[in-house]
Amino acid sequence: MKQLLTVCVLLLSSYTLTSQTAPIDPLNIGNITGKIIDKTLQQPVAYAAVVVKSSNDGATITGGITLDDGTFKLKDIPEGTHIFEVQFIGYKTHTQQIVVSRQNRNIDVGTIVLEEEVANLEGVDVVAERSTIEQRIDRKVINVGKDLTTTGATAADIMNNIPSVNVDQQTGDLSLRGNQNVRVMVDGKLSNVPVAQLLRQIPSTSIKSIELITNPSAKYNPEGMSGLINIVLHKNANIGFNGSTNLGYTQGIKPKFNGSLNLNYRSGKLNLYGNYGANIGQYINNGNLLRPEENSIQFYDFLNDNESHLYKLGVDFYINEKNTLSFFTNQNIFDGGGGGNIRVVYLNNDFPNITQFNDVDTENRSQQYNLDYKLDFAKEGHNIELEIDQNIFTSETIFDFMLIGSPLSDYTDIDEVDREQTIVNLDYVNPLDEKSKLELGTEVRLFNTEIDYESTGLSFNSNGDLVPTPSTNFIYDQEIYSAYATYGQNFEKWSYQVGVRFEDVTVKADTNTVRAFTDKYTQLYPSAFVKYNPSEKNQYQLSVSRRVDRPGISQVNPIREFTTPLLSAFGNTELIPQFTNSVELNYTRRLKGGSITAGVFYRKIEDEITRALFIDPLDENKTILTFDNFNDNSSFGFELSSNYKPTKWWSFNASFDLYSQTQNGIVGTETVEVDNTAWNARINNNFTVTKKLTLSLFGFYRGSVRTVQFDIDPMTFINVGARYSFADRKGTISLNYNDIFHTMQFAVDGRLPFPQTGSFNWESDTVYLGLSYNFGGGKNRALRRKNRDDNTKQGGGGFF
C-alpha cells in the first residue's frame, strides 16, 4: 500500500515539473491586478486561472490563480500587446486585450464578471447542467448539476455519487472515507433531525453544492473524526417575486412521492422567503441470517410508512449598506410508522421457533429559531457577526411487540425524547492588509436531552427471573464554551493559515435522579494549512488538524435502544471521548477540459470508540451490543477524482478512493483486531443528444469490506437516466432507472461470536420521474451568511 502511494505521488510530481512556465525575462516591466466575481451571486470566484498570452502565437507568458477574495496580481509582464484570459470550470472564458508600455506599467482590469456556461435566466437560479469538483484550501466542493439531481428525489439518493461518501441504503447511515464519525450540516448548521431522516427530506433539486471538509480549520467545531459534510442549498434574494417548484414520483415495490415549493419576495430593504418540502412513501426491507452451528435461520421482513413536512419562513432586513438583521424559523414534522416480523427458525428443532411481530409508531417535531446581526466596517471584508440559535426537538416512539415461542409475550415500549439546544456565536473578521487576514470568535452552547422510557413488558433480572421492566429516565446535559483564532497570509505562489480552538466541556448525566456520570475536560485543537500554486495549472495543499469525537447520546444511553429475539443494544455510560490527529496532502491539476485531484491522508486515533458484542450471560444463544473504548488506532488512504469533458457531447465525473485501517473490538469473550483495506470506484457519464435532451449513465463498485464481526461482499450497481428541458430552460423533466440489474445487496459472512452468513435487500431498483420549474424575475445580491456548524451530533439546523 505504501509503495502504491509513493509511486502515485512521484508520478504526479514529475508531471507537474514538466508543466512549468518558461523563465521570465529580466526586462519585464508590467503588472496586472483585478478581481473576479460570479455574475449571478456577485461573489468572489476563488482559484480561477488568470493567464497572459502572446497576441502573436497564443503562447502562455505567465499566469496565476485568484485568491479566496477573488483578487489576483500578475507580475513581470513584458512590453507589448497581449491577450489576457480568465478561465474557470463551469464558466465562460473571459478574454481581453492589454497593452503594457513604460507609460502604462500597472494595469488594473477592475472587476471582471464571469458567466456560467449554461446562461442564467433573468432572475432564475438555474442548476448547472454538469457537476464539477473544486479542491479548495480546506475542502472539496462538488457543485451539483442536473446530472446528479436526476439520480433521485432526495439528498440520500445522490450521496453515493459523491467521492469518498457512502450511504447504507437500509439504515441511512452515512460514512466518509469508510468512517461513520462524520458530522452533516445544512448551510453550515447541524440539524436536530436525525441524519438518516434529514437526508431523505431534502429534495435533490434544492442542493447547490456539497462540501467535503475532511480537515476543518480551528474555526469549525472539532467534532467528527472523518470531518464534516456541508450541504449548501440554493437561496434567492432577487428583486421582486421569484420561486421554484419540484415534484417527484418514485416507483419501487411501493410508491413514493416528494415535492417542494420555494418562494421569495424582495422589495427595498426587506427580503421575505418561505419554503415547503414533503416526502411521503413506503419502504420495504428484508433479509436472512444463517447460523450453521445451531442450525438456525433468522428472517427479517419490514415495511416502513414515512411522511415528513418541512417549513421555513424568514426575513432579511437590510438596515443600510453596513447593517443587516435576519430572522428565520424552521419547522419539521415527521410521522413514521412501520411493521414487520423477525422469525427465528431452528432447522433441527433443537429449540422452539420464535417469531417477533413489531409495530412502531414515531412522531417527532423539530423547531429552530435563528437571529443574526451583521455589521460591516468601512474596509472591505472587515465585519463582526452575532448569531443566536435556539433548537427544540420532541419525539415519541411507541414499540408494540408480540412474541410467539418466548416467555416474553406481548409488551409495549414507549420512548419520549425532549432535546433543547441554545447556541450563541460571535465572529470577527479583519483583513489586516492585502495579504493577511485575522479571524476571531467565541461560542457558547448549552445542550439538554431528557429521555423517558417505560414498558408494559417483562425482563430478566440478574438472577434470571422474569420481573416487570422498570421505567427509566435519562437526562444528558452538555455545556461547551469555546474560542478560536485563525491567521492567514497569501504570497505570490504560497498561502498558509494557522489556527487554534480552545474548548471547555462539562457533561452531566443522570439516570432516575441518580448521577450516572460527570465528565469535564479542557482541550486545544490546532490546525494548519499550506497551499502552493507553482503555475496556473497546478495546486498543492497540505493540512493538519486535531479533532474530537465525543460520545453521542445513543452511545452512552443505558436504556435499551432496540431489540430482536436474539439481540439487545445498550449504551455505555463509562465511555470517554476519542481524539484524532490528521494530516492530508492534495494535488490538483487543471486540464483543458476539466481537472484531476489526487490526495493522501493519515489519521491517528486515541482511545478509539467502537462497538462491542457480548454473549448474554442469561442466555448463551443471545448477544448484547454496546460500545467501548479501545487502544490507539490509525488509518490512511488515497483518493483520486476528476471531472472532464472529452468531447462536446460527452462529459464525466469519476473518482476512486482506497483506505486502510485497523479495527479493534470485543466479540463474545475475545478482543479482536482486524486489518481492513477497502476501495470504491464510481463514474457518472453525461451525453448531450440535443440542446434540450441529455442522457446519463452512472456506475458504482464497492470492494469487499472487513469488520470486527463480518466480511462484507463487494457491491455494484448501474443507473441510467434522461432529462429534457422545456420553456426556455425554465423547466426540466427527469426520468431515471436505478440499479437496472438489481445487483445491490448487503451480503455478509460472520465469524464471531457465532459463524453466520446472510444477505439483506431493499428497494434499490426504482424508477424516478421528476419535474422542476423556475419562475420570477429580477436580480440582486443575495445575503451571504456565515457557513459554520454548531458543534453537536444532534444539534440545531434546518432544511432550506
Report what the structure shows.
This protein is mainly beta and 800 residues long. It is 4% helix and 62% strand. The strands form six sheets. The chain has a 22-stranded antiparallel beta barrel. It has a five-stranded mixed β-sheet with strand order 8-9-13-14-12, with no helix packed on it. The model is unreliable at 1-26, 118-128 and 778-800 (pLDDT under 50).
Which features characterize this protein?
800 residues, 5-stranded mixed β-sheet, 5 helices, disordered N terminus, disordered C terminus
Offer a quick outline of the entry.
The protein has 800 residues and is mainly β.
Topology at a glance:
Blueprint: H1 2-17, E1 30-38, E2 49-54, E3 60-65, E4 71-77, E5 80-87, E6 94-100, E7 106-114, E8 132-135, E9 140-143, H2 146-149, H3 155-159, E10 165-167, E11 174-176, E12 182-186, H4 195-199, E13 207-213, E14 227-233, E15 240-251, E16 255-267, E17 270-291, E18 296-318, E19 323-346, E20 354-376, E21 383-404, E22 410-430, E23 436-455, E24 458-460, E25 466-468, E26 472-490, E27 494-511, E28 514-535, E29 538-549, H5 553-556, E30 563-564, E31 567-569, E32 578-591, E33 594-606, E34 609-615, E35 623-629, E36 633-644, E37 650-667, E38 670-688, E39 693-702, E40 705-706, E41 710-712, E42 715-726, E43 731-738, E44 746-750, E45 756-762, E46 766-776
Parallel strand pairs: 1-7, 12-14, 31-35, 34-37
Antiparallel strand pairs: 1-4, 2-3, 2-5, 5-6, 8-9, 9-13, 10-11, 13-14, 15-16, 15-46, 16-17, 17-18, 17-45, 18-19, 19-20, 20-21, 21-22, 22-23, 23-26, 24-25, 26-27, 27-28, 28-29, 29-32, 30-31, 32-33, 33-36, 34-35, 36-37, 37-38, 38-39, 39-42, 40-41, 41-44, 42-43, 43-46, 44-45
